[in-house]
Amino acid sequence: MRIILADQIFYSNDDGSISLPKDAKQFEVSFTGYETLKTSKFQSSIKLKPLYNDIDEVKIVSVDIKKIFTDVSKNYTDRYYDKPAIFDVTYSQKRFENNKMKLLVVADGKFWTRDGQYNAKEAFNGKHKNFVQLQIDTLRYLKLENNDFNIKVKPQKVSHQPVGSMFFDYELFYMMRRSKNKNAVTSGKLLYENEFEQEISYKIKMTDNITYTGTFRYNKADKVITLFEMNFKQSNASLEVFKDEDGFEYQRQSPDGTYIFEFYKSGEKYVPSKISIRYEGIKYAMGDKVFEYRNARDIIFKSFKPTEERGVENPVDINGYFWKNMKISDDKGLVNLSEEELNFINDKADEN
Question: Which residue, of 67, 71, 261, 320, is most buried by count of CB atoms within 10 Å of its CB?
């Protein structure tokens, strides 16, 4: 659930609860598949009306998603903010091994972008700091436990994905290419429509046992995707065989996952409010040992302002374990951990 105040944005945790400033007012509350609610009164419990009660009862209309993806991608800089900007952000990351949490990081800081877009050439040359930087001001929570996984995996080639997945234009470009692949089977369906926007589901079936499905919310007037969810399934693909640093063979199963991008309008253009990434079903096997992983990363863009600055003062390695050697603050701010996260933080067993 997302709540937009006059100058700040908040999201609920995995349990559905949310912490807000005491003086909060003028709420805009939204959640995927539900009508947006605007109210000036604080409510401890909020109920939203579903956009549709039963999809089977709705008249399904086909939609050309290739046309929408192409149009939004080609006109991206006209519709999404494309100047230098700094966001106050909350960054969180979790990792699980065989369904046991092994890592939790929650931090507040600043996120700077040069033009709100991914630059493949600069990233490939190791110059991603030219267009995106992250600064950590306060490390609210940190707990890290050692993995039981002991296969010595060789370092992989440089990938665009870690930084690219922080930018909607990067994912949109690839969705456009996938939908236009001559071997892909593509479909789109209109689930809901009102005067201002549409809720659209889509499916792209590739020939290599990979399927992309999801929904997106499309603003008809501004021709902007304001919420985009993409689920990908790769676990039907064959296991890949590798050799570790000692020359021993092991197998790797590619993950399934979900990417979510959310935006809101600020002035004449749209800016991000949250990026969520989930991976699950990542498997490594060697002999009779099998390790399964799932990971999650969220960036909540709490506030936005244009800037003339060419970065932040103290950028961290956006691809690395930036929390190393950082001190955990006693000030937990408005971070609202889920019950699972609290249990992990409070469990002293096996803690480093």
Answer: 261
37-39 β-sheet, strand order: 9-11, 2-4, 27-30, 37-39
The DSSP 8-state label assigned to residue 55 in this structure reads: G
CA nearest to 174, candidates 201, 200, 206? 206
Residue 12 φ/ψ, nearest 5 degrees:
-75, 160
Task: Give me the helix-helix angle, 168-180 and 65-74, nearest 10°.
Answer: 140
Q: Which of 33, 32, 31 is nearest to 18 (CA)?
A: 31
Instruction: Take residue 250 and report the two structure tokens written for it.
Output: 């092991």
Q: What is the pTM of this model?
A: 0.89
Write out pLDDT tens, residues 155-204.
666 566 789 999 999 999 999 999 988 889 999 999 988 889 999 999 99
Q: What is the DSSP string of 106-161?
A: EEEEEEEESSSS--HHHHHTT-GGGTEEEEEEEEEEEEE---S----PPPPPP-SH
Cα 271 off chain centre by? 14
Of 221, 213, 153, the C-alpha closest to 178 is 213
